[in-house]
């Protein structure tokens, strides 16, 4: 565990992400033209989140899941990798999938 990281002061006034229209390919059938949250803690949030979704979807599809499971998995994975933006928040933040 990196103790330096644990002891750092976090600046909650600075946004840790941003809300932008989804413009990727992996989840375009579900998220095209929707504003999604990009997590800026990744060095390249756009590519990292797209890659994560692509790898998770590949893992599911490679298992030979039936089409109903594939559709459900795609929805969950895409909304996990690219959560919708909380439009009621003053700073960009993702909406939680489940409460």
From TrEMBL:
<protein>
    <recommendedName>
        <fullName>FZ domain-containing protein</fullName>
    </recommendedName>
</protein>
<feature type="domain" description="FZ">
    <location>
        <begin position="14"/>
        <end position="99"/>
    </location>
</feature>
<dbReference type="InterPro" id="IPR020067">
    <property type="entry name" value="Frizzled_dom"/>
</dbReference>
<dbReference type="InterPro" id="IPR036790">
    <property type="entry name" value="Frizzled_dom_sf"/>
</dbReference>
<keyword id="KW-1015">Disulfide bond</keyword>
<dbReference type="Pfam" id="PF01392">
    <property type="entry name" value="Fz"/>
</dbReference>
């Amino acid at each position: 565990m990196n103790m330096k990281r644990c002891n750092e002061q976090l600046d909650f006034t600075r946004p840790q992400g941003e809300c932008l229209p989804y413009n990727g390919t992996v989840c375009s059938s579900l998220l095209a033209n929707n504003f999604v949250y990009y997590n800026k803690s990744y060095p390249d949030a756009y590519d990292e989140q797209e890659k994560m979704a692509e790898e998770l979807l590949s893992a599911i599809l490679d298992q030979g899941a039936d089409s109903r499971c594939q559709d459900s998995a795609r929805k969950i994975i895409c909304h996990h990798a690219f959560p919708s933006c909380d439009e009621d928040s003053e700073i960009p933040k993702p909406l939680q999938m489940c409460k």
